């Protein structure tokens, strides 16, 4: 049986260099708060609990994060004032059960891979101290890994406390360690702040472990992105690019064809079938699913939507399902410049053309609205043809009403359908009509002023002075 893992996430720091009102760990990367990435990673390790240490903006941070899926319990502990990383972990000690391993992470380090942390936990194996380390060409500011002649780790010395010789060491502590909890608690109780920064350093536990004869092992990685923290908007943007690159690579690995992996942003979860093609500058938000053979043109923004097999979304289309979702049926053609809003449910082979807005409406198979139109709160039957410039007047200033357009109706151009109203199957509405009453199946409805034509009409001319 494996030893339970309790994760401590340090998130009490101020994040001054973000120059933002928002606490640093709530800034978003790939659509999720930085600390949420860390919590979700802990859940992927099947951790027993995640203890987030909050301080600056504690209430906002606690309200802004969510318990992960699965059995991992989320807890908060407050640290005020912030007297250092050792002091931070001291605050968590009372909620860490003695029988487990504590894995220390930071709320501002979002891209650590679960496999890397699992390797660290395996190295710890419930009885050793395991440190995640890496070599840095410029190690300025980091804690240095000091080893003895035989290569064993002796201590972590913070940059400000390090001698010239120690500062020449390029192996640094990443800020991530795994330690048997019972032992950690004993060492935390022995920390002091007699150092260059007057802080309680968590890193001092290493020298206590060595003194107690415990083996301290380093898991040295080469990929700096996995331990990179966010301190500034520039670093946030750099890690966003690194994250998006990973997402793009995973999609391509599955067979998705991206015109340019550097010009794709996924801020949620994008599920793709086979032979999906995505052109440049597309943004996906929330849960989006693309069926087999779906093609997405350049510059589309798509959120909370299901696009079924073979549908084509032409360039500059905006789809946002928000809470209700949007569904686009198989073989449909959408855009360019179309807008699908929450509750748009399109059946098979529906055509939605340029400058057409659809909201909270169902369109049955083969329905078409190709130009400059609005369909809101409408039920549209099979093969309906909805003319250019026509709109549903669905709002009377207080309430929304439905428009029902039965199968095979042709609505001419520039019509206003004043809801609630039903157009019977197979009927025709003449262009420019304002329809306020239901029409029977098979009828022609025309509701506009009759045309008057005066022959040989002389336009008024300006008088000469
Ligand atoms: C720490 C390590 C250093 C390591 C570096 C890697 C110590 C003493 N030093 O340095 O060896 O190379 O991380 O990035 O641990 N925090 C709190 N409460 C506090 C202080 C910090 O919650 O009182 C949080 C911060 O918000 C941050 C994390 O702990 O998320 C690390 O703090 P930071 O000040 O960045 O660590 P360093 O001193 O730079
Ligand atoms: Ca510091």
Produce the secondary structure layout.
Blueprint: E1 5-11, E2 28-29, E3 32-33, H1 34-44, E4 49-54, H2 58-64, E5 73-78, H3 85-92, E6 101-106, H4 114-124, E7 129-135, E8 144-147, E9 153-157, H5 164-167, E10 171-180, H6 181-188, H7 205-211, E11 216-221, H8 233-253, E12 257-258, E13 264-272, E14 277-278, E15 282-290, E16 295-296, E17 301-307, E18 312-313, E19 318-320, E20 326-328, E21 333-334, E22 339-340, E23 345-346, E24 351-359, E25 362-363, E26 368-376, E27 378-380, E28 385-386, E29 391-393, E30 403-405, E31 410-411, E32 416-418, E33 421-423, E34 428-429, E35 434-435, E36 444-445
Parallel strand pairs: 1-4, 1-6, 4-5, 7-11, 12-14, 13-15, 14-16, 15-17, 16-18, 17-19, 17-20, 18-21, 19-22, 20-23, 21-24, 22-24, 23-25, 24-26, 25-27, 26-28, 27-30, 28-31, 29-32, 30-33, 31-34, 32-35, 34-36
Antiparallel strand pairs: 2-3, 6-10, 7-10, 8-9
Protein model, in words:
This protein is α/β, with parallel strands linked by helices and about 475 residues long. It has two domains: about 5-225, Spore Coat Polysaccharide Biosynthesis Protein SpsA, Chain A, CATH 3.90.550; about 255-445, UDP N-Acetylglucosamine Acyltransferase, domain 1, CATH 2.160.10.10. Helix content is about 15%, strand content about 30%. It contains eight helices and 36 strands. It has a 22-stranded parallel beta sheet that branches. A seven-stranded mixed beta sheet has the order 5-4-1-6-10-7-11, with helices on both faces. A three-stranded parallel beta sheet has the order 29-32-35, with no helix packed on it. Strand 4, helix 2 (about 60-65) and strand 5 form a beta-alpha-beta unit. The mean pLDDT is about 95. Uridine-diphosphate-N-acetylglucosamine binds near residues 10, 11, 53, 55 and 175.
């Amino acid at each position: 049986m494996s030893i339970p893992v309790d994760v401590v996430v340090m998130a009490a720091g101020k994040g001054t260099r973000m120059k933002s009102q928002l606490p640093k760990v709530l800034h978003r990367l790939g659509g999720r708060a930085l600390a949420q990435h860390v919590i979700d990673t802990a859940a992927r390790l099947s951790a027993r609990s995640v203890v987030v240490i909050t301080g600056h903006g504690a209430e906002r941070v606690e309200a802004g994060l969510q318990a992960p899926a699965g059995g991992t319990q989320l807890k908060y502990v407050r640290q005020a004032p912030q007297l250092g990383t050792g002091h931070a972990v001291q605050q968590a000690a009372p909620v860490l059960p003695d029988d487990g391993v504590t894995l220390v992470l930071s709320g501002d380090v979002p891209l650590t891979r679960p496999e890397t942390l699992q390797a660290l936990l395996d190295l710890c194996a419930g009885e050793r101290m395991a440190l995640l380390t890496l070599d840095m060409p410029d190690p300025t500011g980091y804690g240095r890994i000091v080893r003895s002649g035989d290569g064993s780790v002796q201590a972590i010395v913070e940059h400000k406390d390090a001698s010239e010789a120690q500062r020449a060491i390029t192996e640094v502590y990443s800020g991530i360690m795994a330690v048997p909890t019972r032992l950690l608690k004993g060492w935390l109780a022995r920390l002091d702040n007699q150092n260059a920064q007057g802080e309680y350093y968590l890193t001092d536990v290493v020298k206590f472990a060595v003194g107690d004869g415990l083996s301290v092992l380093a898991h040295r990685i080469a990929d700096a992105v996995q331990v990179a923290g966010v301190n500034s908007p520039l670093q946030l943007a750099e890690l966003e690019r690194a994250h998006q690159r990973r997402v793009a690579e995973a999609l391509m690995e599955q067979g998705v064809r991206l015109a340019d992996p550097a010009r794709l942003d996924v801020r949620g979860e994008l599920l793709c079938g086979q032979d999906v093609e995505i052109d440049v500058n597309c943004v996906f938000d929330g849960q989006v699913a693309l069926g087999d053979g779906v093609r997405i043109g350049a510059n589309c923004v798509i959120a909370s939507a299901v696009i079924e097999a073979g549908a084509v979304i032409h360039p500059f289309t905006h789809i946002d399902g928000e809470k209700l979702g949007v569904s686009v049926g198989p073989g449909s053609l959408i855009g360019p410049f179309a807008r699908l809003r929450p509750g748009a449910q399109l059946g098979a082979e529906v055509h939605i053309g340029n400058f057409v807005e659809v909201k909270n409406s169902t369109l049955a198979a083969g329905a078409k609205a190709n130009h400059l139109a609005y369909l809101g709160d409408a039920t549209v039957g099979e093969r309906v043809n909805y003319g250019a410039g026509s709109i549903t007047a669905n709002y009377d200033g207080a309430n929304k009403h439905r428009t029902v357009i039965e199968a095979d109706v042709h609505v001419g151009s520039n019509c206003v359908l004043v809801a609630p109203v039903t157009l019977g199957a197979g009927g025709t509405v003449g262009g420019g009509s304002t329809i306020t009453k239901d029409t029977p199946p098979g009828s022609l409805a025309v509701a506009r002023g009759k045309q008057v034509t005066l022959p040989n009409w002389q336009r008024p001319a300006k008088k000469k002075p």
